[in-house]
Request: fold
Amino acid sequence: MGVVRMPLTEEEFVRRLVVVQGALRGFILTHVQDVNRAEDVLQDVSVALWKKLETYEPDRPFLRWALGVAHYEVLHSKRDSARCRLVFDEDLIQRVTERYEALETELEKRRMALRHCIDKMPEHYREVVHQRYAEAQSVEEVARRLRRSDGAVHMLLTRIRSALLECANRFLADASAKVGS
Amino acid sequence: MREELSRELEGLIHGYLEETLADEEARRLREMLKGDERHLDEFLRVLDCALMKFHCHGIARFRR
Reply:
């Protein structure tokens, strides 16, 4: 019986996985919005990538291959989410996979911009964001902890997102102008 | 018309993020995402910003 020749060494695989991990996490979070569950799916994807490594062709972009594998893991993970199933059918997930890869360079720049903007965000905004997204608290729970109404927290999250997007867009425009000058 | 579509998309994305979409709204969002690649791109930009960054770039470190 012949020995299967792996296209990458373990070290090279890990190096490439680290590079694309941010994009994979973002792709998974597009479908699986619970951050803790998304981390589980990311781990499953990482294991699946290692198991399927022999199917990777080194002359192809690693991200494209990895997104293809993630696509199937996402489909599998969504079976118990009725809301996600209503928005995403298999065809739409395929399109998201394609567009995600096409947008990855732009998205990575936006992530850099957002890191900058989050650094500048007022402390009380960070606290709300932390509770809602990092601790995965429901809006109702955040509202209870802050002693505010659910509606007020919804509004606040909308304002925070808008402020961050505006800040990121400004940061990117400034960066682009600097490159152009 | 374009502006109305953008507003509608913005509202649906917000509902998706906050898990408040009714079934009919979820179907409408799918229809919009499939119907125009620009809608899909905008959806991915917003979600990439709204969810991923808060978590994976270590929001915990901001709790000083």
Notes: Residues 37-56 of chain B form the longest helix (20 residues). Chain B touches chain A at residues 14, 16-19, 21, 23, 26-27, 29-30, 33-34, 37, 40-41, 44-57, 59-60, 62-64 (CB under 8 Å). DSSP finds three helices and no strands in chain B. The helical segments of chain B are 2-17, 23-35, 37-56.
